Amino acid sequence: MSVRIETDTVTYQKTVLPCGLRVVTETIPSVRSVAVGLWVDVGSRDEAEEEAGITHFIEHMVFKGTERRRTHQIAQRIEYVGGYLNAFTTKEHTCYYVRVLDEYLDRALDTLIDLAFRPRFPEREIEKEKEVILEEMKMYEDTPDEYIFDLFEELVYAGHPLGRPIVGREETVRSFTRAMLLDFMARHYTPDRMVLAAAGRLRHERVVALTERLLRGVAPRPTNNRQRQPVPAYRPGERIERRSVQQAHLVLGGRGYDLHHPRRAALTVLNTLLGGGMSSRLNQNIRERYGYCYNIYSFVNLHADVGDWGVYMGTDPRRVARAEQLIRRELERLVQEPVGRRVLTHAKNQVKGTLMLGQENMSSRMMRLGRQELYFGRYYSLDEALQEADRVTAEEVQAVARELFAEQPYSKVVLLPE
Description:
- By secondary structure, this protein is an alpha+beta fold.
- It is built from 15 helices and twelve strands.
- It folds into two domains: 2-214, CATH 3.30.830.10; 238-417, Cytochrome Bc1 Complex, Chain A, domain 1, CATH 3.30.830.10.
- It has helices at residues 54-61, 71-79, 105-117, 123-141, 144-156, 170-175, 178-188, 204-214, 264-275, 281-288, 320-336, 341-358, 362-375, 382-390, 394-406; strands at 2-6, 11-16, 22-27, 33-40, 84-89, 94-101, 194-200, 238-243, 248-255, 293-302, 307-315, 411-417.
- The strands form two sheets. A seven-stranded mixed sheet has the order 1-2-3-7-4-6-5, sandwiched between helices.
- A hairpin with a 4-residue loop joins strand 5 and strand 6 (94-101).
- Helix 9 (264-275) crosses helix 15 and helix 12 (341-358) runs antiparallel to helix 14 (382-390).
- Its cofactor is Zn(2+).
């Protein structure tokens, strides 16, 4: 199967290889670099209880040597030509990515496919990496403005894998064996659940030909009919912890929309209005007017079948109650009062500007390509995204505020100094 879409400046193409892997590209002739990502449709929410953290652990371990290269050779292969190689794991997918000059495209593809299809998982490296991951856990716990989000998700998705930290738990990480890693990869790293996304100065036909050559011998596997665990009904909760911190940290929020929700664009505009920058209502009314905080913002997380929203703030412990009152007042204001036309226009311009500026970076374009294919199985052009934002009305924004802020109780997490 092959798809081609052309605009004035970009050519998008998609090809499904015989083994089932999808190749999606954006050709941008005006640049001299390419960003390539190998996406795997598996994240921490796909783990069994005893596997918590294994997706993230595998993402680390593939860099510890493949059938063709040792650890230092993997990094050197990209860095010695001025490129950048990294990876990340989310709740729903894993991505290995490279950015290089366009003349090294074949090297980038070769490296990524080697990592995902031919890791060795040396026993000695597995034991060493366990200690690395445990140190990573401690790092997060020592960073309250990150750790608090793990506690918040644990409340919002109580009893579900989405509520677990991506890095897992100490007892599960210590239990991982080479056989467990290989078994998990065999179940989830199948070509039909992979997307190769590339953006920059490239020819789609060459990317396809190189990828096919590198995957020679990889046979298609039966479609993996994965059934993700359904998310239970939302039950609000509250958690207050005392830790060795100087500031109090607060997150207030609840369940939101999924990625396919028809009001997704209106939620993005609402989030921008509420806490999406220095001109947002939270920043202007709580930081600038009262001086209660240095950092305050709102956030939205959109997953395939569910989502969440919230407000984060760090403040003096004596001001937590008053600050929470002020946040709730801003939320109530959005429920009760329609947004003015000029304010709405400014918020939509901010959303559109962020979208357009992001497209000037090849890595951002590649990330957008990969996510679109994984979640929607299709290409959303920049014009389509801009039009979606333009269509948002004040009535839609208020309707979203009522659904999320007024029709469900909030969950709350507070970290206080010991």
